[in-house]
Structures
1.
Amino acid sequence: MLNYQWAIKTKLKINFMMKSKLFFTLIMFFAAIACYSQSNEPIKFKIKNTSILPKKLTLISYTPGDNGNGTQGYWMWPRATKELTFKVGTRLFLANQKDVSTVMSGGSIEKGKPYLIVKKEDTDKTFTF
C-alpha cells in the first residue's frame, strides 16, 4: 500500500511540474510574439516635394529582418505629398541612377548615409526632399 501511495504522489508532482513548465513556456512564447510585433509595426508618414518643378523620387529601403532591399519610384508634382508606410528601423535612401544601377545589379548601398531611419516618433510627420 505504501508503494502505491508513493506512486500516486509522485505522479501528481510530475503532472504539476509538467503543467508549470508548459504554462511558463506558453507565457514566454506569447511575450516574445508581443515584443516582436510591437517593434515591427508599420509607421505612416509623408514625403513632400518642395520644388516648383516636378521631381522623380526613388527610394531604396532596407528593412530589419528582411533580406535584400525594396525600391520604389514616384514622379511627384510641385508641392505634392506622398504617404508612405514602412516598419520601424527601416533605412531609406534617396537614390540617383547610379544607386539604382548598383542595387539592380545585386550590390548594396546600405553602407552609405540614409536619408531617413524610420522611428515610431515619425508617425504622421512630413519630410521634404
2.
Amino acid sequence: MAIPMDRLQVAVNGYRNKIRDLPPQEAINHLQKSLAYLTKLYMGVQLKKEDTPLLIEGADFVRSKYGHLGLEEIREAFRLSQTLQVNLKAYYGTFSLISIGELLDAYTKYRNKVINQLLDEQQKIEREKRKEEEKGEKNKEAVQDAIESFNLAVKSKNELPMYEHWAAIPQNWYDILLREGLIEVTPEMKKKVATIAKDRARLEFESCIYSDKFVEVDKVHAKKIIKLLSKDELHPDFIARWKSIYSKKIVWQYLKPTTNE
C-alpha cells in the first residue's frame, strides 16, 4: 500500500529530530502536553490536576523507551492506531502505559519499514547517480580518444595509414566527430555515401543467404530482410547495418589515402 507523502515526511522528520536529542526537561514538557491531549482524544482519558505525577511518569516513559521517535511521530502513532491494529479503546478512559507502549511498539515497526524503504530508495538514487557520473567520465574519455586518434589518423593516412579499410573504423567516431566539428557532411556527400552504404548493406544480407559461414536461422532472417527490400520496406536490422556502414564510410572519406580512390 502506498504511503502518503505527508506521512513519509513525518517519519523522515522524526528520524532526523529524535526526542532523545532534546534537552530532557524540554522533551518531558512537550510530551506531557501531547499525551494529555492525545489520550483524551483517542482514549477518552480525563486527567485531573492530581494526575500530574502520572502524566509526568508517562512522559518520562516515552522519552526513555521511545526516544528514537520524533515528537510529531507520537501524534502520528495515535492517528494510525487503527491502521497499526492497536485497540486503544481496550483501556478506554484509563491512562495506560501498557496501551501507549503497545501503540508505540507497533508504530516503531511500521516506521522502521518506512525509513528502510526510503533509505533503500535513496541508496538506489545515489547508485544511479554514481553510474551516470562514471558513464559521463567514460564518455569524455571516449570522445577525447576518438578526437586524438582521428587527428593522428588524418596526419598519417598517406605515410602510415592507421586504417586500411573503412570497416575497421570505430562505430562511435561518426557521431563524436560530427558533433565536435571535425568532419563535415555536405548534402552531396550524404546522398552519395548513403546510396553506397545501402547497396553495401543489401549485398551483405544477400551474401549471407548463400554463404556457408552462416547458420540456417541467419539465412532465413536475411531472406526476410531482402524480401522486405523488394517491397521497399526496411527491416530494423537492415536500417542498423545501413547506418553503421554509412557512418564509417563518411569518416573514411577523411582517412583514406589520397591515392586510394
3.
Amino acid sequence: MNIFFTLKITNSIVRSLGKFFSQIQNLPFPLALCFSLFFSTEVFSETYIGVLGGRNGGEHIFETGNKYPNLSGIRGGSRITYDRNYNFGGIEGGYTKGKLNLEAKFATTGWTVNTKGGRDEDFFLGQVSTERNSKLSILPLHLHDTAHTYTGTQNFADGKGSLSIYEQRMSFFGKYFFSGETASPWEKKDRFYLTFGIRYNYFKYLLYDVNQFIQRPLYYGPIGVGLSYSYSSIEYGGGGGYIYQIGNFRIEPSLILLIGYNRFRDFHFQRNLNFIGENSGLGFISKIQTSYDISENTQLRLSYEAHRMFTKGYFKTKGGLSSDDILSGYLGKYSGGSSTKEAYIEFGVITKLKGLL
C-alpha cells in the first residue's frame, strides 16, 4: 500500500464519515444507537483510536432458479457473480471499562474502484443439476462452504464484463473477559472472552463493457452496460475467543456466529428490469489477530478474517421491455438467494488518547 494510496483514501474516509454522520438517522436503529453512544463517550484513559487498511478477496453471488418451467417455458435459473477483490481503509476506536471492551470500526473503498470482473449467467436445469440452499446449519452442525447454490447447469446465455464497486462497512462489537485486571488491549495475560455485536455493510456494483453470448438466436458481441447491483445488510453476531500472550506479542483466534438480513436491487439496463428483494440467513466470522505493543500507548495489529453469509429469500420484478418481463411483475414473489464468501487481511495501528494529549 503506497503513500499516494494512503493519503488518497484518508481524504476519502473523511468525506465518507461526514456523509455517514449526516445520515446516521437512516441506519438500522441498533447500529445507530451503538455508534452514537460510542462517539459521545467521555474520553477516559483507556479510550483508544487508530487507522486501518487492508485487502479484501472473495465473491458475492445472487442466484435464482427452478426445475419447473418459467414464463418462457424454461427450466432454469440465473446466476450473477460479483468479484470482491479490492483495497480498503478506515478508522477504529475502542473504550474499556472493567472487564468490558467496546470497539467500533469504519472501513470503505473510499471511491468507486475496479475489481477483477463480473459475470451474468442464465442456465438450464436438468436431471443432474443439484440445488444446495442449506449451506450452514447449527443443529445438526453442517457447513457447505461455497457461494454457489446450483451446480450441474448448462448456460444458454453468458455475459462477462468489467466490474466496479463502492463499499462502506461498519461494526460495533463488545468483549467480556473472564480473567485479568482489565479488558484493555494492552493487558498482558492469557484470557478467554465472549464477544457480541453488530455489522452493517453497503456496496454498489456496476457491470459494464459486457461481452454477451446467447445460444438462441446465436449471438456473441458487446452490449455495453449490463447491470447495477445495490446491497445493504445487517448482521448480529455472538461468539468467543482466546488471547495468548508472549511478552509484548499476542495471538488472538476467535469465532463468531452471525444471523443476517439483507436487501438488494438488481437493475438490468438492456431489459429495463429491476429485481428487488430481501434475504435472511446464517453466517460466521473466523478470525486470527496478532498484535504487538511498540509502547505502553501504541499497538500494531495484523489480522486475517474469513467472512461467510448464506441467505435465501424472495424478490419481485418491476419494469421490463418484453411482455414476459412486464407480466412477471404482476405474478408475485420469486425465490432466490445471495451468498458471500470472502476474507481479508487488515493492518492497523491504535493508540491511547491519553498518549496523544
